[in-house]
Structure to design on (293 residues):
């Protein structure tokens, strides 16, 4: 019999579990409400009533949302930003981090100091906006991609991970005639797949949830990201804004709350579907570069 199996729960354990249960319930109940309202038939929906499960299931709100040009445009915008931005993030971050691991690279110290400087100091919103404006990227998807190609935190963590790889493998590859690019592509990249998977998840989630930068850099409603559209639906205006070019005004017969909740669920769905499969990589990514030996 193991010690863990025979251990009795103490008063502290009961208090701890109770508090964790309350916190979990506080986090879960809002999600259950959004889920239930979004699937509730508009004919039986009662405002300000809490639903654990829909009284009558219906997909009408989802069908309406998916028929509107506003939501579809936002979905296309967010998908493009997420896919292209994530690929560029991974390429730039791992390439630069690998270069920073080479002590003989000219200017390495200056570049590393610049990276660390940006980790401590930030230019701020106004200078960033002026820079994007002067580059002519306002109202462009590239304003959301180029402005965040990498970050100091990502570079430092990836650099630490790459430095933990056996240097003997790179030396052997060079003896066999591999160039620096060949070593990076054939040796470093295959060995870095766990790190690449973890940071791909980090970058993809960040791009999918892009809100603030999209709010200040993009004023064209046709190029809004999903998060900006959902914010507009939930906070700024009523649900009629989503269907200006959509289902011909059918939303007048639908409760605004069911449409809003359906939009929220659709904006969360891709992450909810993908995250469980990449959770192990996410957990590994938190520990990348934390131990060297």
């Amino acid at each position: 019999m193991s010690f863990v199996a025979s251990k009795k729960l103490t008063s502290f354990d009961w208090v701890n579990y109770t508090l964790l249960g309350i916190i979990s319930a506080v986090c879960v109940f809002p999600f259950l409400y959004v889920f239930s309202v979004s699937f509730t038939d508009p004919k039986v929906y009662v405002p300000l009533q809490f639903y654990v499960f829909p009284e009558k299931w219906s997909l009408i709100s989802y069908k309406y949302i998916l028929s509107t040009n506003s939501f579809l445009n936002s979905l296309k915008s967010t998908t493009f930003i997420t896919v292209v931005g994530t690929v560029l993030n991974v390429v730039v971050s791992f390439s630069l981090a690998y270069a920073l691991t080479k002590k003989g690279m000219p200017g390495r110290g200056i570049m590393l100091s610049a990276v660390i400087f940006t980790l401590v100091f930030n230019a701020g919103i106004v200078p960033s906006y002026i820079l994007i404006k002067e580059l002519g990227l306002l109202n462009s998807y590239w304003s959301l991609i180029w402005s965040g190609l990498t970050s100091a935190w990502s570079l430092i963590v990836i650099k630490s991970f790459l430095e933990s790889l056996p240097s003997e493998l790179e030396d052997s590859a060079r003896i066999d005639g591999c160039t620096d690019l060949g070593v990076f592509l054939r040796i470093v990249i295959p060995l870095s797949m766990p790190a690449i998977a973890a940071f791909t998840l980090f970058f993809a989630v960040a791009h999918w949830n892009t809100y603030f930068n999209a709010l200040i850099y993009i004023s064209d409603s046709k190029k809004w990201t999903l998060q900006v559209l959902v914010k507009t639906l939930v906070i700024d205006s009523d649900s009629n804004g989503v269907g200006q070019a959509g289902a011909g005004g059918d939303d007048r017969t639908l409760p605004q709350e069911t449409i809003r909740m359906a939009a929220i669920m659709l904006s969360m769905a891709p992450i909810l579907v993908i995250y469980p499969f990449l959770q192990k990589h996410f957990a590994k990514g938190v520990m990348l570069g934390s131990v060297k030996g």
About this structure: DSSP finds 14 helices and no strands in the chain. The first helix runs from residue 3 to 6.
